[in-house]
Amino acid sequence: GAGGWSPLVSNKYQWLQIDLGERTEITAVATQGGYGSSDWVTSYLLMFSDSGRNWKQYRQEESIWAFSGNTNADSVVYYKLQHSIKARFLRFVPLDWNPNGRIGMRIEVYGCTYRSEVVGFDGKSCLIYTLNKKLINALKDVISLKFKTMQSDGILLHREGQNGDHITLELTKGKLSLLINLGDTKTHPSNAQINITLGSLLDDQHWHSVLIEHFNNQVNFTVDKHTHHFHAKGEFSYLDLDYELSFGGIPVPGKSGTLSRRNFHGCFENIYYNGVNIIDLARRH
Asked: Coiled-coil intervals in this record (predicted)?
């Protein structure tokens, strides 16, 4: 209508939900009060969701962010988000409003279409990528992906070598572990195994991002915005790894003896290995 959104009851339990129709990258929001009224919101929370069922609150500087709203009915208060949101649904939740009026909002959302490749795993499958040997750079490896799941355990990534060397990225009890195993302890006695764990409650059915960067023997492991940097011993740059990466599980159960853990059950988005779009390759066979 002409005035904007104004619920019948003004209390902390009201919210306005927007369905953008598809997953969208949201970069900014703006608000006004109700047209020609004394109804405006002075502070609000922003929540977002892909499904309309599981909601996440917009955070800034690691804390839930309350947006300062309006001080009158007609001035526009515009916020460029510090980091963009990728979601289909948005919820504006009023926290405070004009004490001499009611909750009243007009809203604008800014953003653009979000292009993504998504693949689902049923807990019994995996996606295998065989590398082009000509394109392999022994000194640099970059793997990035997003995942979401309700399962607390599962293999996200595995790469194995002839002599027992392997790299495994595994979800265990809702945390992500990067295990680098230099199989032959006689050859690498001082550095047989590296195990880094990051994140928690990652089985919350929201998207989480993972980045693994390996330059020479420097490794950066990032989950969402938290990075662990570590320096492996010299032998790490000579890991005897096959030209094959598996996502979502280990293709041959028990191939390395100890690895008989659960396959991943959930979704992956935008899997990249050294700039190669793995999901797009799989779609095009």
From this structure: none
Residues 75 and 159 placed together within one structural domain of the fold: no
**Alpha carbons 28 and 31: distance in angstroms, whole number:** 11
With contact defined as beta carbons under 8 Å apart, do 247 and 127 qualify? Answer: yes
**Cα→Cα distances 208→2, 3, 76, 144, 148, Å:** 40, 39, 33, 11, 6
Q: How far is CA 83 from the centre of its chain?
A: 13
Are 38 and 103 in contact by the 8 Å Cβ rule? The answer is: no
In terms of domains, do 106 and 225 share one? no
Domain holding 155, by residue range, is: 118-284
Structure token pair of residue 38: 């004394």
Query: Which range (6-10, 29-33, 233-237) has the least confidence?
Result: 233-237
Average pLDDT over residues 172-192: 72
Q: For 33, list phi and psi in degrees, rounded to 5.
A: -85, -175
The CATH number that applies at residue 88 is 2.60.120.260
- In single-letter form, the type of residue at position 43 comes to S
Tokens representing residue 78 in the block: 């515009």
For tokens 């002839």, the residue is 162
- Does any domain span residue 123? yes
pLDDT at 163 over 90: no
CA distance 211 to 114: 20
Of 30, 52, 56, 49, the closest CA to residue 41 belongs to 30
Is residue 143 within 8 Å of 157, Cβ to Cβ? yes
The pLDDT of residue 219 is 87
DSSP 9: S
Q: How far apart are CA 243 and CA 128, in angstroms?
A: 10
Show the beta-strand stretches assigned E in 66-139: 66-68, 77-97, 106-113, 118-122, 127-130
Q: What is the dihedral of CA 227, 232, 234, 238, to 10 degrees?
A: -80
